[in-house]
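Progress report, Aim 2. The chain analyzed during this reporting quarter is listed below.
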Amino acid sequence: MKKMAVFTLIFLLSAGIVWAKDYQIQKKAGDLNVSVRMDRNPAVMGDNGIFVTVKNSAGQEVTDAEVRVEYSMPAMPGMPPMNYKTVLALKKDTYEGSVDFSMAGPWNMAVKIARGGKTVSTKFSVDVQ
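Predicted structure tokens for the chain:
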């Protein structure tokens, strides 16, 4: 009986890893609703796909903006701060690109949306494994 319980537990845990969801977060940037999805959860060192959907207050998708992601890790003892940016490309109704994390640890992320001469942004953090 114990063997069956252990096998079931191991199976359920491994199934959770196989079917783990992408990293997703919903944020506000000014009057825009921003949905951010990364193709890895948790994010890992190296390239990670990032997908951003922007909707106005009426729920309509915004496809006439420039969307960029700025990501950084603050300075630590013996290490200078790291700051990177990437501009996302519009594909259908989603802005897509990749972020390349150079080391594990907490990263600050900012999605900046420029539209009609105005820029709004939203911030969040990601713990890279």
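The chain has one domain: 21-128. Helices lie at 2-18. These observations will guide the mutagenesis work planned for the next reporting period.
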